[in-house]
Write a structure and sequence with these properties.
The protein is α+β, with helices and mostly antiparallel strands. The chain has a single domain, classed as 3-Layer(aba) Sandwich (NADH Oxidase). It has six helices and four strands; from the N terminus they run ααβαβαβαβα. It has a four-stranded antiparallel sheet. Helix 2 crosses helix 4 and helix 3 runs antiparallel to helix 5. It is globular and about 60 Å long.
Length: 186
């Protein structure tokens, strides 16, 4: 399958089965995903692998962040969660927003690689993503922010992912305005 085919066929899987890639399989894909464009090669990202009871710890942290007494069952929806962390590095040349873009690029590339390898994946976030309780549960440092989790598991047999709307590239790709021209309206 070509990269173009992989991107065109990628879908989010909100429901996945109980199996997930092994740690070794995951490490192979992460090594490839880490090849995204990265100004000054700062590697301003890291991933946290959550399996088994780790997901219950996250469920308790989400409950604490939301003021709930019962742990959230959301992290139990997949056998593997991959927390995506922007791990900002000091740099005169590379601003914080660009470093977050690199971390996001790694996450998206990893989701494509997981999908192409046959795994169901969805990138989840929520209002609790950047709360203190959730950051503490992940052991985040002062220079880090959680960008969400990739939920990973087996694609359910016989099920098809939801349909995605086609992208009309003509509406999204514009040209540089000519000097003195008025701004285009959306």
């Amino acid at each position: 399958m070509s990269a173009l085919d992989a991107v065109r066929s990628r879908q989010s899987w909100s429901k996945v089965g109980d199996t997930a890639p092994t740690r070794d399989e995951l490490l192979t894909l992460v090594a490839a995903a880490g090849r995204v464009a990265d100004h000054s090669s700062l590697r301003p990202w890291r991933l946290i692998e959550l399996r088994g009871a780790d997901r219950e710890v996250l469920g308790a942290a989400i409950a604490k962040a939301q003021g709930d007494s019962s742990p959230s069952s959301k992290p139990l929806r997949a056998p593997l969660l991959i927390a995506v962390v922007a791990s900002y590095q000091k740099s005169e040349k590379v601003p914080r927003w660009e470093q977050e873009a690199v971390a996001s690029g790694v996450a998206h590339t990893l989701s494509l690689l997981l999908d192409e390898a046959g795994w169901g994946v969805i990138w989840r976030t929520g209002h609790h993503t950047r709360t203190k309780a959730v950051a503490k549960a992940h052991g985040l440092g002062k220079n880090e922010e959680l960008l969400g989790w990739l939920y990973v598991g087996a694609k359910p047999e016989g099920k098809k992912p939801g349909r995605r709307k086609a992208v009309d590239a003509r509406k999204l790709v514009t040209r540089m305005p000519k000097a003195g021209a008025k701004k285009a309206k959306k």
